[in-house]
């Protein structure tokens, strides 16, 4: 099993380019199955989750061509299976987004409870309720969900929970449904708005994506098109926090600073020196940074996917701060290892920790539990004195493209062995 060996404590310097957003690209792959015409997907991060998605789509019949680095063509003229391959589906949360095109194209979809990061309970009731509201029949047998519908019908759906993939799946389901669908209490993440723009460019009629109410007027069919993946705001935020935590000068390039307003606001309160450009964030090593507490929230609030790197940064800040993880109840357990690296963290309950800083971190051997916590360990290891070994880096490869090569260019001492 591959691992990262990191010798920490070095100041980093230079520029780092942000990849396309995994969580946007994966949805474009699913959306490509809504049309029989070819869809070109650009600026795709070459990460494990994208490979799993491509693999999964091929099992359904469509062609997925890897044209060049970061560019794929999906042609779904044939879609001859209604079943999401359970072994892959269980590994990938985004597999659930495929339920919409499969149901529309074949009248049926059979799928396992989707997997992904182990970060707490990840129910799918929002999807099940949504499909029912659009007129589908839902049953469960042998641990698999079975949804059928000859033709989906527009409806008003008020999500009882704000869900990113739930919003995306219902938006896609409504695109060719009969009549108008009104989705309320939608998630507003930039990846959703970007998906809607792409679907509209293929002939859909979606209004309001990026707000809490989305109105979809059903159209007969969609044509093909080109999707350019938006920059990964989580990767950009993680690099900026690496710079702040390690006292380094790093320019994060090719990003969308307007997608990171909550983080930039927090930086200002903490005293982190940043220069924001139109597509870059430059962090300059400052003197002291102060601790500021945060509650993770749906966009435009502070993202749960940045909670782990922020917690590492707070171990290097002066003072005491509360981190309140409101989205997932299992997403703070990774901090046990951070404590063993020397962090002063008090676990108040499954949703809240108190961090006191600054503390000196020490290198250790650590197991990466999930993607974002894995990246946080990389940041912690780069800040720590001594050598760290990070195991199970498949989790990091799921979402970050060749991370060690990019960090090496900043002067990081990191090796994949
Ligand atoms: C997406 O997951 C992202 N994944 C996650 O990124 C991200 O952490 C999350 O949104 C929140 O921003 C993808 O886009 C593939 P949710 P998703 O449904 O859509 C509850 C990463 O590291 N809920 O918005 O699965 C749920 O329990 C990953 O890249 C229900 O109650 O998350 C949670 O508390 C990890 N019922 C909240 O909603 C449902 O049916 C938000 O989850 C669905 C969700």
Supply the key terms:
2 domains, UDP-n-acetylglucosamine1-carboxyvinyl-transferase, Chain, single chain, 4-stranded mixed β-sheet, transferase, 417 residues, alpha+beta, Enolpyruvate_Tfrase_sf, UDP-N-acetylglucosamine 1-carboxyvinyltransferase activity, binds ligand EPZ
List the helices and strands and how they pair.
Layout: E1 4-7, E2 13-17, H1 22-31, E3 38-42, H2 48-59, E4 63-68, E5 71-75, H3 86-89, H4 99-106, E6 108-112, H5 125-133, E7 137-141, E8 144-148, E9 156-158, H6 164-174, E10 180-184, H7 190-201, E11 205-207, E12 213-217, E13 225-228, H8 233-246, E14 249-253, H9 261-270, E15 273-276, E16 280-284, E17 294-295, H10 307-315, E18 319-324, H11 335-340, E19 344-349, E20 352-357, E21 365-367, H12 371-383, E22 387-391, H13 394-397, H14 403-408, E23 413-416
Parallel strand pairs: 2-14, 3-13, 9-10, 17-18, 21-22
Antiparallel strand pairs: 1-22, 1-23, 3-5, 4-5, 6-8, 7-8, 10-12, 11-12, 14-16, 15-16, 18-20, 19-20
The structure holds ligand EPZ.
């Amino acid at each position: 099993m591959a691992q990262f060996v990191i010798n920490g404590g070095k100041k980093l310097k230079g520029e780092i380019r942000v990849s396309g957003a995994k969580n946007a690209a994966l949805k474009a792959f699913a959306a490509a199955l809504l049309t029989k015409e070819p869809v070109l997907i650009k600026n795709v991060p070459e990460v494990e989750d994208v490979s799993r998605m491509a693999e999964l789509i091929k099992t359904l019949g469509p062609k997925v061509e890897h044209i060049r680095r970061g560019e794929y063509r999906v042609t779904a003229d044939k879609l001859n299976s209604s079943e999401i391959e359970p072994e892959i589906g269980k590994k990938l949360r985004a597999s659930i987004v495929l339920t919409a095109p499969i149901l529309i194209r074949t009248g049926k979809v059979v799928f396992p409870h989707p997997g992904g990061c182990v970060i707490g309970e990840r129910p799918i009731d929002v999807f099940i309720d949504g499909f029912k509201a659009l007129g589908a029949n839902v049953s469960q047998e042998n641990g698999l969900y079975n949804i059928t519908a000859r033709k989906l019908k527009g409806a008003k759906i008020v999500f009882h929970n704000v869900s990113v993939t739930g919003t995306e799946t219902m938006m896609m389901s409504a695109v060719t449904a009969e009549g108008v669908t009104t989705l309320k209490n939608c998630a507003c993440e930039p990846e959703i708005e970007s998906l809607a723009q792409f679907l509209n460019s293929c002939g859909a009629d979606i209004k309001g994506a990026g707000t809490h109410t989305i109105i979809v007027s059903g159209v007969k069919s969609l044509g093909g098109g080109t999707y350019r993946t938006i920059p990964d705001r989580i990767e950009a935020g993680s690099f900026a926090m690496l710079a702040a935590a390690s006292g380094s000068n790093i320019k994060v390039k090719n990003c969308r600073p307007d997608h990171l307003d909550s983080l930039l606001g927090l930086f200002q309160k903490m005293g982190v020196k940043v220069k924001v450009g139109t597509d870059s964030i430059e962090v300059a090593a400052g003197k002291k940074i102060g601790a500021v507490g945060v509650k993770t929230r749906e966009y435009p609030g502070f993202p749960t996917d940045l909670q782990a790197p922020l917690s590492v940064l707070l171990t290097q800040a002066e003072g005491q701060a509360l981190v309140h993880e409101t989205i997932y109840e299992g997403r703070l357990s990774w901090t046990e290892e951070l404590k063993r690296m020397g962090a002063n963290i008090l676990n108040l309950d499954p949703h809240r920790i108190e961090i006191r800083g600054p503390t000196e971190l020490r290198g250790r051997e650590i197991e990466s539990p999930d993607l974002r916590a894995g990246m946080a360990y990389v940041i912690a290891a780069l800040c720590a004195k001594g050598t760290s070994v990070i195991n199970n880096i498949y989790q990091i490869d799921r979402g970050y493209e060749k991370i060690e090569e990019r960090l090496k260019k900043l002067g990081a001492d990191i090796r994949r062995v």
